[in-house]
Amino acid sequence: MIRIRYKDSISRLLGLAGHGTEIIRFKKGTNKTYDLETECETVQVSNLSILIENRCNESLQVKSRILDARYHEPYCRIEDKLTLSAYMRAETKKCKMEILRAVCLAKIGMLYQLPMPIRPCNPRFNNDHSSADQDYTPAKILFIIVVHGRDLRQFQRLLMAIYNKNHYYYIHVDKRDEYLCNKTRAFVNQRNEKNIAITSWNLAPFWGSSSFLDVLIRCMKDVMILKQFSNWKWDFYINLSGSDYPIKTIDQLTAYLSLRRKKNFVSTMTITSTEFIKRQGLNFLFYECDSHMWRIGKRNVTSYLQFYGGSDWVVLSYQFCRYLVTSTDPFITNINLFYKYTLLPAESFFHVVLQNSKFCDTIIYNNLRLINWKADLSCHCQHRKIVDWCGCSPSNYRRSDLSKVDIIQDVFFARKFESLVNQEILNLIDERIFGKKLNELNRNYYWQSICSSSELFTGKCDRYKLYIESCMRLARNNITSSYNRQTVDLLSFIELYVINKEDLFAGMLLSFLISTNIVVEVWMQKLQLAWTMPLTKGAERLYDLQVGSILDKKEQIFRNHGLLSVNDDLIVLQRWKSGPKFECNLTWLNPSNEIAKQKVLIIETDWRFSYFKAELSKPVDPGKWKVHLSIGNIIFSEIKFILLPSDNSPARSMNSFSSFENGYLTNFKFGGDKSNDIYTDNLIYKDNFLKSFDKWVDLLILESWKVYKICFKIKDKDFESKTDICRCQCFPTSASHYYSDGRRTGENDLAGQRSNRSNWTVEEVYNTIKQLRLNRASSLRQTHQLSSAIPLHNVENGLRDVPYDGPEASFALGIYGGQIRTQQLFPFPDALNDESKETIKLMIDPFERFFRDVHDPSQNDLDEEMSQKSIDGLKEVGGMGLQVPQKYGGMELKNTQYARLCEIIASHDLAIGIFMGAHQSIGYKGIVLYGNEKQKEKYLPDLVTGNKIAAFCLTEPSSGSDANSIQTKAVLDEDGKHYILNGNKIWISNGGIADVMTVFAQVPVDKNDSEGVSQKVTAFIVERNFGGVTSGPPEKKMGIKSSNTASVYFDNVKVPVENVLSKVGDGFKVAMNILNNGRFGMGAGMSGLIRMLISKSVEHANSRVQFQRKLIEYQSIQEKIAKMAIAHYAVESVAYAVSNNMDKGIKEYQVEAAISKVLGSESAWNICDECLQMLGGIGYMREANIERFMRDLRIFRIFEGTNDILRLFIALNGIQHAGKHLKELQNAMKEPMSNFGTLWDQGIKRSKQFIGISSSDELVESAAPQLRESASKITHRIEEFGSTVEKLLVKYGKGIVQEQFILTRLADANIDVYSMGAVLARATKAIKENFPTADHELLLATAFIEEASDRVERNLVSVIRKRNLNTFSMFSEIANDVSHSEGIATTRPLGF
Known about the structure:
With 1392 residues, the chain is of the alpha+beta class. The chain is built from 38 helices and 46 strands. The strands form 14 sheets. Strands 2-1-3-4-5 form a 5-stranded mixed β-sheet. A 5-stranded mixed β-sheet has the order 10-9-8-11-16. Strands 20-21-22-23-36 form a 5-stranded antiparallel β-sheet. The longest helix has 29 residues, at 1115-1143. The N and C termini lie far apart (113 Å). The relative contact order is 0.05.
């Protein structure tokens, strides 16, 4: 290191990262020049600058302004490895010196000073409330839009989606993106709107940089200070990026903010200030230069300031912005200096100022954004090239993420979106927000510029130059041959676009001039040059093979747009199905068909996505390459691709031949067979060589690309066309970038839905706010309301109005009208993307190890309690908060992911499943579904970690399924701050150990007519430590013995009014939705248990020998095992059809969930019985564990809604649904002429049914060819079902609700028909996608449908055939006789 010291008392700072321990001293001379003596050399230092050369011959220049008389330390010693590393890696001299200056100033405390807080406040306080007394004048918003890259069309689409004449839009474009800057400026000028402006300056912010905060603050200053913005009067400041997009209307956002004036919205991590400082890197000194954020040393951050943050996307009030821009407060000055040397400053700057200033009471911890975090994909230190830190970025939303934006919280924007990755989700969001579809002609296309004429010679388009030239020549040849024209002149290149169709790469669009008034656009399409054949074991796992160079690991796509050059880092990418581990060879073959590189790959069982870098010496040979995968000598997959010479190769340069010496080229060789090489050992004249080179490039391009379409844009009528050239608009496919695009220009009908009003009335604002609240409440109900575990009169009250047609139309309910609706089953639903599947796959092993190594269900069963070891192990694997949002510490699993874990849990121990379910599926589920933010923040963190246990307290001695008949009371005390709770609950799972309980009680509520009060069921969050809460001893049960079941007593318990869940009187709805929400998981759990029971049965049948034969050889055993497997296939198919549809956003699935519960619990019981029967005496013994499962299973047909009640629920929902349709037909017949089409369709349908012809082929056409006979059977049964229901409604009318003999059989038929549909869809998918188990699944599906179809026929006949109805009457008489006799009514055979 180097130390510089003044000989006199005034010292100066300078540190150099050198080698050795040189000490430099200098004396002041009369000419203000200093001589420095060192151990190695002499250096001159003037009063203007200092020039020092160290032993590495490395020069540094430091401006004399740093030599300030304020510094009194004798020297600055540079020893920190971080500083030395940053100094050595910095590229420019200026950056190196600035790093040293910052470090030396920091050493003596002169770089910045941390201020004292003005007014610190509670970081957990969330002041999110609105008042009816507030001003309803609509708020005005200033949008700061920061964009970069080349995604011009998506930016324009964003602007159109949020545009409103009442608001203001200030746009900043990254200065590195000259193309986007010019295009954006032209777009803004063309619109000529007074409320849209673009910055006159441009910075170059990047992830983690301090310049991003500079952009946000400078935009704020511009709008407040510059004269041109004096008419912009706004209330809120919102920053957006080009990858943000609204998920609600701007009118809704305006209404929301209008009620929260002067509030500031930020998002923070739920960690302490000390933890945040460490996690965010605030304890390090950073400096930005050379487009890099350098970590240059450590620093101490004192604790008297509260540091919180987590997101650089904020919504700020005008008052706070004014304070930031105009305040002379030292606090603002010093905190600005501190954040100049801070990583990710925008993620905490605003938060820290708010927390430590007079604005601390204005914070709302919600930045109104939803961010698509995928931790396993997003956090791979992806920004290390520009930041000395491991950074995380969100992933792009895709179609599979649509359910994430279907939210009920106060969220108005989501990120990230990238049209080049997935445009479909933006189209779907637009349809949701604005209610209309985009123009069908262009909604599936997206194109983006990757090179323009102005960039062609700047170095930005080097990789595209040869491709552009070749495509222009190929297009010219195509025009000449197709349109019988003479050779046209290629005048100039205009632009190159990448084009996607339906979110898949579809090629390139190249536009250029062929005369002064004719623009040609050619669509170049990539040829498919890959093949895969499963020729050997393991090969069937591969389903995608690609070669590229710029791999986006997070999105798992290439970004080289199908173009590769000899200087690229080549990467091969594979996508795999699950399957056995195997080994294969990866081979790279050069254009001479020689092996350039070979690698042995070991494909692990759980691999879904893999990639390997070629590691070839560059530049490689240009020409046609191949990559193949092989096992042994068998090649099972191959891909061909071309490598173009780079533009700066010895071959040529596009308009510059500097690589030639005197017009000649020496010894250049093209890749390929030697017979086709264009090379020579002699000098080749340049012109002749280039003609041959161009021809060779054109032939090479045609190996991988083809001219797909050509269109012309003609400026005038001089061009005479003899054939099909379209003059005004490029092809009707709208793939041309010239086509009118409603997503960016507002020309689409969609634009008409955007609010563009300049005048609002108070009434309009109030109505908008009211509607927003109603929509939120409706969304909450729709998201969580499923089937109900309630008695008959409540079954009728719980019926839902389900859509009769459309994507929400239920398959299970359509059966009652004889309707076949395949939307929810075909293709068999699969809502999990690869990332979600990988996430749950990673969780399977820890859960399996927990049950294998930690949990002992047999011992717990004997002890009749859950061991602490089991509870602690469950906490460690995250089993106490599986579906709770991550912001509260939960796993935030989707329903299908949760279902997969339910399989594991149930297959090992149903009792621990009860413990887990009582805790999270119902115990604190009400807080998740209905809790406000304060309730969630208070209770969920401790509950999801298992620090506290939850319980659900509904059942009472006088009420079982009938929630409305509970007797527990809660009365508001005189001060209005507490409810006094009295009563008792029985059979409460976790009742003896719970710390937090969801309790239901009757609350007196004044009637509307002022004539007394009525009792309304209300839900409360009750803590045991409130006092007055006691529990009885654990109940002695038949099964699930290790789960705690006890009575809970409430004696004058004081419950704070803020602990009401939802609102007073909503308790019945809350209870039903809590119970219903978890019902889908039972079917999956039962399928996991059945799978385990079948394994035990098969293991015994394969090993047990009786009468010299294995049991499996006897047909009676074969029948048992076959029926077990068939039943399991049905249960599993139904369970995952339901959970996947829930994850896809289907709202109406309550009947399907009830079907899954009934089918799963009864099938599991029957199969457990058969398993025990097959094992005989062995199965009856405790050691086999079958008897434990048998005891535990029995409760599953009782709780979560008894199966008897659920059958009535299923049937009554279906009959109501069918009745609504018949009512519509009845009304149509009153006006036959105006409803002729409806009546004609119905007549045709009934005529076909009358003569035995199916009225719909939809199911048959959706099924695999091998299953069409089965599909036909299902179709006939559905039509018979509809006809039967119609007859019953005609006969019984509303009295049908009392005919439980009939309703039960209808429900059984419904369960079978829905199960047949799910099985058919699943087997069809297996066959069409060539699953290894496709043949076996075909057998299972065919057998199940055959038997189920017969059961349906019998049940439908029994509800209308007279002799069966007579039998039903006999059942009633027999039951009455037995009831009157209080037992068996017959005499004993012996008479006594």
